[in-house]
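Async update (no meeting this week)

Hi team, since we skipped the sync, here's where things stand on the single-chain job. The sequence we agreed to prioritize is pasted below, unchanged from the tracker. I ran it this morning and attached the output directly underneath so nobody has to dig for it. Comments welcome in thread, and please keep replies under the output.
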Amino acid sequence: MEHRLFNEAQALPAVSPAAALAYRDNTEKLRLQVDKAMAALTDILLFHVTEGRRGAISVLSAPRYQMLNGDKLTRYMLLKAGIAKVNVSASNGVIHVINNVLTPPAN
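Output:
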């Protein structure tokens, strides 16, 4: 006996115009929520990156940095996050590992 996921003879369920509109509205709301969450995540990730190759001494001696998301990271915020490892060389910069996620200041 052949089992088919879709049977051509089977009628598709009827969908009312109101249900179709509600589905479209809910889909649009979900898309907006996902877009907002992606923008927030991008902002957080870019708050962890600055331009240039900066060694630990350079990082800790400056009072603040312009991060790629446009906000400023202060030395206090960096030290509060906890530094786990410094001067990890990468092909596109230097990585300094921290113990906590940095959150951009509220605008």
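Quick observations from my side:
The chain has a mean pLDDT of 88.
The first strand starts at residue 64 and ends at 66.
Reply here if anything looks off.
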